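Late entry, evening session. Most of the bench is empty. Finally got around to the prediction I had been postponing all week. Sequence below, unchanged from the version circulated by S.P.
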Amino acid sequence: MKSKSAFLRRQILYGFVYDIDYSELREYNAALGKIGGNLNQIAKRMNATGNVYAADVKEVKELMKKVWDTQKAMLSKQPYMKQ
């Protein structure tokens, strides 16, 4: 659009307004951040000691399950839009 007023006119005549809740996306991003931090700690520990601990693997698996569950919940709440 060339101007804000042209955009607004087009929205008034042809546009749609959607109210989207991003709380699930924030939870998803937070869970991904935790996994990234934990993986970095595990990688540092593995490089320093040469060992991989079962507790670390279990923690990563639990966090991955949380991310997957959050993603499924987020996708299930998305509105179906006809085009």
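Two things to note before I forget:
The chain has three helices and no strands.
The longest helix spans residues 23-49.
Will write this up properly tomorrow.
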